[in-house]
């Protein structure tokens, strides 16, 4: 399998964590989102992912999967253990709710193409765009803080899909100087997660394309 990746992408970071937790090896092919106008916009990559986003996972038969949560669900089916989605229906729903709150409600408002639109079409200043990002990240994380019940991970003694999504979002929050001191539950989950080798190996700073 080939993972089309960018070291700083929160969505790609999620998939890297899941791969590490599952013990699955893939070939990593960096797609630089800023170089030369964005390698994600090149025809060869658009043929694989028309959304021009990372990550994308190319299977051995050439089929390409897109969207980080869909890719992680595929990995869960491919290698069911360790489980990232709890077997208990209620806990599974809570886990997915946190993952979706991050992947669908926080992250899309703060990603590269939204910032580009704000600048190019609405004449937003860099300072305004940074303030926009900080506002939506903090508001979203404040809600997630109330949704989880650390044990020591978001909902249990082992990482789930919720943790896989949370850690990259906290990394992004720090990039944008979002204050996190009043989110003790999230910080405790982060501390527990970053003790695990899988999370360490998936960290942006450990990637071959890190800058």
Automatic annotation (TrEMBL):
<dbReference type="InterPro" id="IPR010987">
    <property type="entry name" value="Glutathione-S-Trfase_C-like"/>
</dbReference>
<dbReference type="InterPro" id="IPR036249">
    <property type="entry name" value="Thioredoxin-like_sf"/>
</dbReference>
<dbReference type="InterPro" id="IPR004045">
    <property type="entry name" value="Glutathione_S-Trfase_N"/>
</dbReference>
<dbReference type="GO" id="GO:0005737">
    <property type="term" value="C:cytoplasm"/>
</dbReference>
<dbReference type="GO" id="GO:0004364">
    <property type="term" value="F:glutathione transferase activity"/>
</dbReference>
<dbReference type="InterPro" id="IPR034330">
    <property type="entry name" value="GST_Zeta_C"/>
</dbReference>
<dbReference type="GO" id="GO:0016034">
    <property type="term" value="F:maleylacetoacetate isomerase activity"/>
</dbReference>
<dbReference type="InterPro" id="IPR040079">
    <property type="entry name" value="Glutathione_S-Trfase"/>
</dbReference>
<comment type="similarity">
    <text>Belongs to the GST superfamily. Zeta family.</text>
</comment>
<feature type="domain" description="GST N-terminal">
    <location>
        <begin position="1"/>
        <end position="83"/>
    </location>
</feature>
<dbReference type="GO" id="GO:0006749">
    <property type="term" value="P:glutathione metabolic process"/>
</dbReference>
<dbReference type="InterPro" id="IPR036282">
    <property type="entry name" value="Glutathione-S-Trfase_C_sf"/>
</dbReference>
<protein>
    <submittedName>
        <fullName>Maleylacetoacetate isomerase</fullName>
    </submittedName>
</protein>
<dbReference type="InterPro" id="IPR034333">
    <property type="entry name" value="GST_Zeta_N"/>
</dbReference>
<feature type="domain" description="GST C-terminal">
    <location>
        <begin position="88"/>
        <end position="211"/>
    </location>
</feature>
<dbReference type="Pfam" id="PF13410">
    <property type="entry name" value="GST_C_2"/>
</dbReference>
<dbReference type="InterPro" id="IPR005955">
    <property type="entry name" value="GST_Zeta"/>
</dbReference>
<dbReference type="Pfam" id="PF13409">
    <property type="entry name" value="GST_N_2"/>
</dbReference>
<dbReference type="GO" id="GO:0006559">
    <property type="term" value="P:L-phenylalanine catabolic process"/>
</dbReference>
<keyword id="KW-0413">Isomerase</keyword>
